[in-house]
Each structure stands twice: as C-alpha cells, then as structure tokens.
Amino acid sequence: MWNLFMKTIAGCAVAAACFTSIAGAQAPAVPYAIPNPTYVSIPMEVTVNRPAAEVWKRVGKFCDIGEWLRIPCTIVAGKDGEFGAVRSVASEVLVGKTELSYTYTQPVRTDRPYILYHGTVEAKPVTATTSKLVYTLVYDNSTLADDAARERDRAQRTAQFTQALQNMKILAEGGTLPPAPPRGGGAAQPGGRGQR
What is the pLDDT along the chain (196 residues), one digit of tens a residue? Predict the structure, then answer.
C-alpha cells in the first residue's frame, strides 16, 4: 500500500511539473486591433418608488428602450428577452440577463473602431416598496482624439442615460413622459457616433 501511495505522489509531482511547464509556455502575442484600450465605466442610478419586480415588468423588456429613450425599437432577430435577441437600436444584442437585469453589446462594424461597448440595465430591490434602477455603460474610449474628446463623450453619454433613467422612473411610477424634444438634423442614433 505504501509503495502504491509513493508512486501516486511521484506521478502527481511529475504531472504537476509537466503542467507547469506547459502552462508557463506562452504563444506569441497577437496584436490587438486597438493596441492601448482605455476602458471606462459610467454607473448611473435613480431611486424608484415601486418594488423592483413591478419596475422591471414596466420598463425592463429589451425593446422598452424605445419608450424610455423615445426612439423606434423593434426586435429584428430572436425573441425579446432571450439570449441573442437583436434590437433595431444600433443592432444591439442581448448577451446576459437575470430576473431583474439584462446586458447588451453592439456588433463589430467595418466603418468604425470596435469599442467593446456594453450596457447593463438592472432593477435592484431596496425595500419592499422601493427600488433602484441602475444603468452601467462600459466601453473603450481610446479611439477618441484626446482627453477633451473623451471627457465630452463621457459627459454626453452620462447626460443621455441619466435622462433615460429619469424617464424609466416616471414610467415605472405610473407617469407619462412629456413629448420628446426635437432631434436636430435628422434621426441620429443615440450616442452620437452610432455606438451609444
């Protein structure tokens, strides 16, 4: 029995050494399309005087973005609320979800750099009768010209989605949105550069 135990230990030591040498060997680095990304996140939230489940039922469907951003939205592939669903807003794809949240991303396009844009919308319970709506954006802003451009972009996105949260709060609390302000110069996609 002792000999079997020692052989097993020796075999494990050899296997561990082999695994370490294999794991330590790295393949040559493949260059990234964006060589020096700078990922930023913009967390935003608003308190809602309704339970989280009620809030999510009212404003949490994937294409509800059309109502609270006051833009057209249709599901162009898949089914609203299911993984892989694609909505007409910037061709966004639903890539993650829970009972009270979802995460989406935007596909790679040939006419602009890919910024790994993701957004997460979530209703968080606070009390039995109140909740928070949380909207978090994550993306790479290194493709912008300089720090001033990055700050303008961040401020514009923060303002746009803070307004979206306010609209979601109004709707979730049973209110009605005022008429949408006119969009200057045509039907630009939210977020300016087509990637919100």
Answer: 555 444 544 455 444 444 444 455 666 788 888 888 999 999 999 999 999 999 999 999 999 999 999 999 999 999 999 999 999 999 999 999 999 999 999 999 999 899 999 999 999 999 999 999 999 999 999 999 999 999 999 999 999 999 999 999 999 999 999 887 777 644 444 444 445 5
CB atoms within 10 A of CB 192: 13
pTM: 0.78
Residue 52 near residue 149 (C-beta atoms within 8 A): no
Instruction: State residue 191 phi and psi, 5-degree precision.
Output: 95, 0
Which CATH number goes with the domain that contains 145? Answer: 3.30.530.20
Could you tell me the residue range of the domain that residue 134 belongs to? 51-172
- Buried-exposed string 26-37: b where 16+ CB fall within 10 A, e elsewhere: eeeeeeeeeeeb
